[in-house]
Design brief:
With about 160 residues, the protein is α+β, with helices and mostly antiparallel strands. It has one domain: 2-Layer Sandwich (Alpha-D-Glucose-1,6-Bisphosphate, Chain A, domain 4). Helices cover about 25% and strands about 40% of the residues. Strands 1-7-6-5-4-3-2 form a seven-stranded antiparallel sheet.
Length: about 160
């Protein structure tokens, strides 16, 4: 069976500078404050590697069934406009995706586009035939962007 490609994308306007938003996205240590998945397991184990932020920074997590397990590596960090991440899930199923945050400041607001693209194979392909990826995680993206907005606008 050939892989099935997917793209999930959401966007929001934030009343903060692109630099403020970039700092929250390009530093995995700051993700617990806004990432929609961080609260899914209060005992989530996190390991950080590489530089504190930007290209080469890594984040590995192991959690309960809902949180799963995987790694993220920032592959591109163009301050303050773009952060690209290689995302690899180990659990609940194996998958690889590319995540891109595009951050554009216009006047007093900043537009943030959050996109994840990849290919579903094996069990994930069968599962996403029943529940498409957009339906599966689109609401999580929306929740995460609301939290990112709150953090950026509060100056946290």
């Amino acid at each position: 069976m050939a892989p099935t490609s997917y793209t999930v994308a959401r966007s929001t306007e934030i009343s903060a500078s692109a630099e403020t938003v970039y700092a929250l996205v390009a530093d995995f240590h700051r993700w617990p404050a806004w990432s929609p998945w961080e609260q899914s397991d209060p005992n989530l184990e996190r390991t950080y590697g590489g530089p504190d932020s930007g290209e080469g920074a890594t984040y590995e997590w192991h959690g309960n069934r809902k949180a799963g397990a995987g790694t993220m590596t920032i592959t591109e960090a163009e301050r303050p406009g773009r952060v690209a991440i290689d995302l690899r899930f180990e659990k609940p199923f194996s998958a690889e995706s590319t995540v891109v945050f595009t951050i554009v400041e216009t006047g007093s607001t900043t537009t943030v586009d959050w996109t994840m693209a990849g290919n579903s194979t094996g069990f994930a392909k069968l599962f996403t035939k029943v529940v498409p990826m957009d339906k599966l995680i689109g609401k999580d993206f929306e929740r995460g962007l609301r939290s990112l907005k709150e953090q950026a606008e509060s100056g946290s």
